[in-house]
Design a protein that fits this description.
heterodimer, A: mainly alpha, ABC transporter involved in vitamin B12 uptake, BtuC, two-stranded antiparallel sheet, B: mainly alpha, globular
């Protein structure tokens, strides 16, 4: 079995939720220009909400997906209304808002341990079957996750790029005052975006959580990859974020197979993406005639 | 020396307060003056800690302490300074997003390497073999002396930061933070200033990491979490990012309150100390960061003296 095929199959099935999380993060970033560090906890909360609904009400994983995503979406909206909106109304600078989101992230990560307990938790799901895909054994569960993530990502893409509400979202992100003059209600649309972002992040968290374990650092460990995917992919819009997300998953799997160590693969991804961002900045500086 | 009256937890608590004051002072130069958010403080500190530990334990030096300590501490400082040069160069022409991703990426890279390079760092098992570069008696006496040494280093950092405030370099950093394109258009070498700032601050953070390594005598990758960056940042923000003493006041009010007053003097149930208290500490720090920046963004001490003077002179 060649490395490329293995990387594609493993990368897509294992890292599909990364694409979903990146879409949610991109929505917020596109609208507010803000790197919301607390988005990491939206992902974590999605996993916790899913695990809680699964183990408390004895529901199967796919039944708890929607409530888990919706609850994470509601938390996301609450953070906007209670923290980020007041910060905007008080004209808090962008740097300070990023630090506020960092504080919120830390607060949520530790506060949730008082609610859900300190130990690592697990979903209560039956052991999955193994299905051969291009000669590689993949758990049925991961395949279902890939299919679900694919459908959800396409739905979100369609909603943002093709629907009327999506048009309003993009208009608001481009020019708030012009959008307001066109009859768009900024608060309603902004709340919708925060909900959708939370929904996407929460669903990604639930998919990651069921594949491994549910722990307070789940979202934080994914935050840097999500951030890098969005910062690199944003130049080509939502489609670019999805493409870069998929490529990252495949590259991560390939590098893990090559090095035999997932941490080296993560290091490689970080270095490649940081290099891309630096080269892009230098090219931009050269165009603008800024001496570096 | 009879130190029966002195609690060992108090010595370590005071050491932590001193170390975080040092980190917050250095962060003050970056965040308070140049307005660069360094989310990778733990990376520079941790790199210094491990560079010290690896060179102290793994290298067969032809001489013993205190020279061995001094050489290894110098190596830690130089390695962290070199990392500051690279990271400073990386973020010098990037915006806030770039600085965040660059510093966060660096801290993640350090944590990954500390975990994977087991032959050097001990990986997840940790690395022992460190010790004080002297032996004057009991562990408590040695720790007390080490606290005094660290206090001296942090005092030197405070003096340096104080001098920077009054130097042309400090004024350039303030100009970079206020309006970098304007400073650049006036012929100021802003990129060079930012790189220089990162080299110096990172080197000192690395030295503080080495001092911590000696105090704990066992290096653990669990120390490389975001908690180090958070504690330095929340202390600085609470005290006031724009003021030198903001770092001191803020760290005393946060780390001092939790790691000394709450940990040592409050009559809390014993089981709280293992999990509830550390979790509560981090949650409270996160909440404090939010509340201060929302309701009193200049912190307890407020704005810079020169800003107050300008307002007085110009009436705005």
């Amino acid at each position: 079995m060649d490395l490329v095929t293995q990387s594609v199959v493993i990368g897509l099935t294992q890292n599909a939720p990364l694409v979903l999380a990146a879409i949610g993060f991109y929505l917020l970033y596109r609208l507010t220009g803000l790197i919301n560090v607390a988005y990491a906890e939206t992902v974590t909360l999605g996993a916790y909400f899913g695990m809680w609904a699964n183990t408390t009400f004895d529901l199967d994983f796919f039944t708890v997906l929607l409530p888990a995503g919706a609850m994470a979406g509601l938390v996301s909206v609450a953070t906007y209304l209670l923290v980020f909106r007041p910060a905007k109304q008080r004209n808090v600078g962008m740097l300070e808002v990023i630090i506020i989101s960092f504080g919120l992230s830390i607060f949520l990560r530790h506060a949730l341990q008082f609610v859900f307990g300190y130990p690592v938790r697990f979903f209560d799901v039956p052991p999955p079957d193994t299905i051969q895909v291009l000669g590689i054994g993949v758990s049925s569960f991961r395949l279902l996750a890939l299919a679900s993530v694919g459908v959800l990502a396409l739905l979100l893409y369609w909603f943002i790029q093709r629907s009327r509400l999506g048009l309003q979202i993009r208009a608001l992100a481009s020019d708030e005052s012009l959008a307001q003059a066109s009859g768009i209600r900024p608060l309603a649309v902004t709340v919708l975006i925060w909900f959708l972002a939370g929904l996407a992040g929460g669903l990604a968290g639930a998919f990651y959580g069921v594949g491994s374990s549910v722990a307070p650092l789940l979202g934080w460990r994914l935050f840097l990859p999500i951030l890098l995917v969005v910062l690199v992919g944003r130049a080509w819009g939502l489609g670019g974020v999805i493409t870069v997300g998929v490529a990252t998953g495949v590259l991560l799997a390939g590098a893990t197979l090559q090095f035999g160590q997932v941490l080296y693969a993560q290091l490689l991804i970080i270095l490649i993406f940081l290099a891309i961002l630096k080269m892009r900045a230098r090219r931009l500086a050269a165009v603008e005639g800024v001496a570096v | 020396m009879n130190l029966a009256w002195l609690d060992a937890f108090l010595i370590f608590g005071l050491f932590e307060v001193m170390m975080f004051i040092g980190l917050a002072l250095l962060l003050h130069l970056q965040l308070g003056l140049a307005r660069i958010a360094n989310f990778g403080v733990v990376g520079f500190w941790g790199l210094g800690m491990y560079a010290f530990g690896v060179s102290y334990v793994r290298v067969d030096w032809p001489f013993g302490d205190p020279w061995q300590f001094l050489v290894c501490a110098l190596i830690a400082t130089l390695v962290a300074g070199l990392a500051g040069l690279v990271v400073g160069w990386y973020i010098a022409d990037l915006d806030i997003d770039g600085a965040l991703v660059g510093t966060l990426g660096f801290a993640t890279a350090v944590a990954i390497l500390a975990t994977t390079e087991q032959e050097l760092t001990g990986g997840a098992l940790g690395m022992g073999g460190l010790g004080f570069p002297y032996d004057i008696g009991t562990v408590k006496e040695n720790e007390l002396v080490w606290l005094l040494v660290t206090t001296g280093v942090v005092g030197a950092i405070l003096f340096f930061v104080w001098q920077v405030h009054r130097s042309p370099f400090g004024r350039l950093l303030i100009a970079v933070g206020a309006n970098e394109p304007l400073a650049r258009s006036l012929g100021k070498r802003t990129f060079r200033a930012k790189i220089g700032l990162f080299v110096v601050a990172s080197a000192a953070m690395g030295l503080l990491g080495a001092l911590f390594g000696v105090m704990v005598r066992f290096l653990d990758i669990g120390n490389l979490g975001v908690e180090i960056t958070l504690a330095a940042m929340v202390g600085l923000v609470l005290g006031g990012t724009a003021r030198v003493w903001g770092a001191v006041v803020g760290i005393v009010l946060t780390v001092g309150l939790f790691d000394i007053v709450v940990q040592s003097y409050l009559p809390l149930p014993r089981e709280w100390y293992t999990q509830a208290l550390p979790v509560l500490r981090e949650a409270a720090f996160g909440l404090a960061l939010m509340v201060v920046l929302l309701f009193r963004p200049l912190g307890v001490l407020g704005e810079m003296r020169r800003d107050r003077l300008m307002k007085k002179l110009h009436g705005r």
